[in-house]
Hints:
It is a single chain. The protein has two domains: 22-58; 60-112, SH3 type barrels (Roll). It has helices spanning 3-12, 23-57, 108-111, and strands at 64-67, 72-78, 82-88, 91-96, 100-104. It contains three helices and five strands, in the order ααβββββα. The protein starts with a helix and ends with a helix. A five-stranded antiparallel sheet has the order 4-3-2-1-5. It is an alpha+beta fold. It is rod-shaped. This is Sec translocon accessory complex subunit YajC. Keywords: Cell membrane, Membrane, Protein transport, Translocation, Transmembrane, Transmembrane helix, Transport. It is found in: Cell membrane. Belongs to the YajC family.
Amino acid sequence: MNFASTFVIAQAAPAAGAQAPNPLMTFGPLILLFVVFYFLMIRPQMKRQKEHRAMVTALAKGDEVVTNGGLAGRVDEVGESFITLEVAPNVKIKVQKGAVSQVLPKGSLKSS
């Protein structure tokens, strides 16, 4: 027998007592990766969504806000899904509540 034939025979016959790999060890890295993604990406995003939802529901007439598009104005009217912003004297626009990115402290618009 030459070296090549013994190599083929050794590969064809499984070792005696060889066991199947542990399923936990097989899926362990995948589970670990999901846990890392949850704590680094999913959980913080859910927290930001919850804070934004609370901010939007707390909007009231007279609040000064900035929209996602960069418009700053004072809330003139609050509806079910839209708010009316006064961006200049006698200039009012209607935007979706979800478009509000932040609520400014009172008096911010007068100082700018």
